[in-house]
Amino acid sequence: MLKVKNFFQKSNIPSARQKELVEFSKKLNIKFNNLELLNLAFHHRSYSNENSKQKHFNNERLEFLGDSVLGMATATFLYEDMMDNQEGDLAKIKSVVVSEKSLAPIARAIGIDKMLILGKGEEMSGGRQKDAILADAVEALIGAYYLDRGYEDAEKLVLSFIVP
User: Fold this and answer.
1) Which residues, at least 6 apart from 161, have a Cβ–Cβ distance to it below 8 Å?
2) What does the alpha-carbon distance between residue 119 and residue 102 come to, in Å, rounded to a whole number?
3) Which residues are designated catalytic?
4) CA-to-CA distance for 164 and 159, rounded, in angstroms?
5) pLDDT for 66-94, tens place per residue?
6) CA 45, CA 122: separation in Å to the nearest integer?
7) DSSP for residue 111
């Protein structure tokens, strides 16, 4: 298990939000030990930009991490599943699988659009349905799950998204 610097002293998540997070996890058949990580995965930078006390409280770092976990899990699956394909074919397939165009529908299907915490301006401009924001939140979710549960569980989550 990864050792993560605990920047959350105690949970500041309102109980109604905690319930939403637990229900979201149950729908995916996953369990978070640290709901703050899951909650952070849904915080878009527009929210933190509008709330000066929380400038760095957004999902961008989790997205960065999740992108790498997504890439590794996808590459491993393709390598093992498509033994007859050349590297160039695998690279093309992987680029499609991990693309915004592929991740945004996954986000909608699992309800990430309903879980997002956006700033007022982003909310008003339709940010909840923007493919880029949704795809980034999928990556942040993967990054959060990786930190919380480790690579094997995060890989299973990724495969549950990409194999179907």
Assistant:
1) 106, 110, 138
2) 25
3) 67, 139
4) 8
5) 999 999 999 999 999 999 999 999 999 99
6) 10
7) T
